Amino acid sequence: MRLAGRLCLAFLLLVACDSAGRLLSWAFGLPVPGTVIGILILLALLLSLRRIPEPVARVSDFLVTHLNFFYIPAGVGVMGYGALLTRDLWPVIIALVVSTFLAMLAAGFAFQWTARLTEKREEQ
Amino acid sequence: MSAFSAGDLMTAVLWIAVTLAFYLLARRIQGAAGGTPLANLVLLGAAPIIALIYVADIELNAYMQGGKVLLWLVGPATVAIAVPLYRNFARVRSALLPMSVSLVVGSSVAVLSALLIGEAMGASVETIRALAPKSVSTPIAMGIAEEIGGYPSLAAAFVIFTGIVGAVFGAGFFTLVRIRDARARGFAMGIAAHGIGTASIFREGEVQGTFSGVAMALNGIITALVLPLLWLAFA
């Protein structure tokens, strides 16, 4: 029972970081999304603690493992926009698919080549 | 304050349960398929729900009573990425230069190629405006689309479609073109396919997932800052 309570507290900590981030982003009109600020807040907390409290580690690892689950409604929601897409359907599909592959290619090689040039010893 | 009736609550709980059931089924299927990212969990989970809603003639809004609860949870679940980020902090900090180069190159290619291909294929200007921010996470993309005069909801749909394309084909594509560095695989996924790509590449490894999360955050920021300016030049 005590464990369950501590896991709940850990989850509430994540919610609090997210909410604080959203509030800061909104209050100062920042171009940075609130959730990103939330990540930075939690990271700063962990860096100052110099360790990850066990319940925070367990809840976070669980959520990250199941991150896909929370995105399923977004996938379902796309259906609602189907009607908007009748006109430019093929240009849209081709632009999105080709552009996504190009972005992965460009970003991946840019990273890999820069790393090879600047790091003498290859990591793993 | 809007009234939130017991009926709404039941509807929300029902659809969350249905989503959970299809998610668990999707994991079974992915497991049976050898864990391949081709069997993407968002796609496998959403497809039967779309079919169910369509066949049973259910309003999308009814489903979204539950859906919006899960979408709200994307926030705290994304904040949880701070934990793997903390564990891999030294690795991330030592890769600042490759990350910066990749961010600038990848972010530009993601936006410009979408604009140019959309234009070349004869898409309308409203569509092109919604295409431009397709590689960043939904709330940022909707904000940018609004700023440059596109439909935010259309932008949201393009973002999700992009995320699924990256999540389904990314890992296989990286292997095909010999992007083998775990950090590069993750970072490129985060640049091109934001949170949905990140959720998927975490299943390949924590290093990949962490770099993907960092890339997603950085790309969201840089795109929000630069794209509206870029749009002025393009238009």
Can you offer a commentary on this structure?
The complex is a heterodimer of chains A (124) and B (235). Chain A has 124 residues and is mainly α. Chain A has 5 helices and no strands. In chain A, helix 1 packs across helix 2. The longest helix of chain A is centred in the last third of the chain and has 30 residues. Chain A is extended, with a radius of gyration of 20 Å. The N and C termini of chain A lie far apart (42 Å). Chain B has 235 residues and is mostly helical. Chain B is 80% helix and 0% strand. At the A-B interface, helix 1, helix 2, helix 3, helix 4 and helix 5 of A face helix 1, helix 2, helix 3, helix 4 and helix 6 of B.
The secondary-structure element order of chain B is HHHHHHHHHHH
The stretches of 5 or more residues of chain B where confidence is low (pLDDT under 50) are none
Please count the helical segments of chain A: 5
Order of helices and strands of chain A: HHHHH
Number of strands of chain A: 0
Distance between the termini of chain A: 42 Å
Percent of residues in helices of chain B: over 70%
